[in-house]
Amino acid sequence: MTSKIFTFKQIFIFFYFLMALGCKAQDTIKVLFIGNSFTYFENMPDIFRNIASNAGYKVKTQMFAPGGVSVGDISQGSQAHMNNPLVYENIRSDKWDYVVLQDNQGRFVLNYGQFPSSSLVIQGHLQIRDSVLKNNPCAKMVWFAGWGMKNGLPPNGNTGIEMIDRIAANYRFLNDTAHEIIAPIGGAWKKLILSNPTFDLWSSDETHPSPEGAFLTASVIYSTIFRDNPAYSIENGGLSSITADLLKQSAWQTLMDSFVITNLQTITPDLIWQNSQLTAGSFLHYFWYKEMQWLSTINTNTLNVGQSGHYYLMAENNAGCKFKSISQHLLITDVEENLQQNQYKLYPNPAQSELQIETSKAFDFPLCIRILNSNALCVKKLELRNASIQSIDVSDLSKGLYFIEITTCNGRLELKKLMVE
């Protein structure tokens, strides 16, 4: 096909550098983790905190996770979480916004609606929940719906995926009574295993999480609590950026696909985007945020949006409890002025084997360039340094629609459509 230069129909501009430092209006989100080695391995709560902090959120975490402990195993006596005074001391140590409770996942692998007679699974979860709510009536429990052994444990799952399915089903059964939030951790593991079988989310013992498994778990919990895509955090947990991005996308997509199952729809204010406005339902108070900064002059259910950016709402009900909306990463489209001021050109577009990125000047700082497929997964990454034209080989890409992401040192992100033919 003959190469031609195309005029861009749309330019998407998004400021995603989240400047929360020094912002006093944003409340600190406090999260207590109660579990065992599945929580403790790779210090998963620290990964969660780093993802959140590097996305601009203020967080405090605390962990109580002695190895081998379950929520309600009768044989563990006072060591079981439901009977352990240290668990309740941790609960009373602060007014936690969220408590992530991780049980021994083996207690959830029996047939649907069945739990071992040797473990007070439902009673234990309810008892801890009631203690958390007594300490802070606005707190929410997050049930850790995770994974089992890599190769299964017949007859309770012949494969790791079958065990994940059993665990997920029994957490849904638990939540028919407990009515809290399910973190779909196992679902994200399953999604990634099926789409990328080369990933090993288990450690060498084929039970505990690998660094990738722990990062994915933390990303799911982040997505569940903040209702925000972890891809907007720069935290990679020591992994390659491509690997971390894939894990983040799996976490976010799983949460969005299972929003009703997780019970998040009951506590997440709906936002409608229409006619350059964000509109919420009926609450007592409205706290709107842009780039993590509280828009203190606005206390109505409607926000007029004139700029691209990261927006969300904290809505307060009559009981004084606050609920966070899904974050809205809003983009300005089809603005001719942005086209005229743009410093980047892509050609030919559609591309066949080679793409040129041209800037109006040679920058003295690197530009990070990524090509994303239609599922927002990174398929190619490179840097542009001290040059006004960069050539990219796209001959290995399948035909279809892609997006070019260009990140500058000041945090500005530009997304441009690219067709490969």
Characterize this entry briefly.
25% of the residues lie in helices and 25% in strands. It has 421 residues and is of the alpha+beta class. It is globular and about 70 Å long.
Oligomer: single chain
Order of helices and strands: EEHHEHEHEHEHHHEEEEEEEEHEEEEEEE
Total beta strands: 21
Terminal CA distance reads: 8 Å
Number of helices: 9
Rounded to the nearest angstrom, the radius of gyration is 23 Å
Low-confidence stretches: 1-25, 332-342, 409-413
Largest sheet: 5 strands, antiparallel
* Order of the strands making up the biggest sheet: 1-21-20-17-18
β-sheet strand percentage: 25-35%
The assigned structural class equals alpha+beta
Helix coverage percent of residues?
25-40%
Overall pLDDT, averaged? Answer: 85
Envelope shape: globular
Describe the structure.
- It is a single chain.
- It is built from nine helices and 21 strands.
- It has 421 residues and is α+β, with helices and mostly antiparallel strands.
- Strand 12 (309-316) and strand 13 form a beta hairpin.
- The model is unreliable at 1-25, 332-342 and 409-413 (pLDDT under 50).
Keyphrases for this structure?
disordered N terminus; alpha+beta; 21 strands; 9 helices; single chain; 421 residues; five-stranded antiparallel sheet; five-stranded parallel sheet
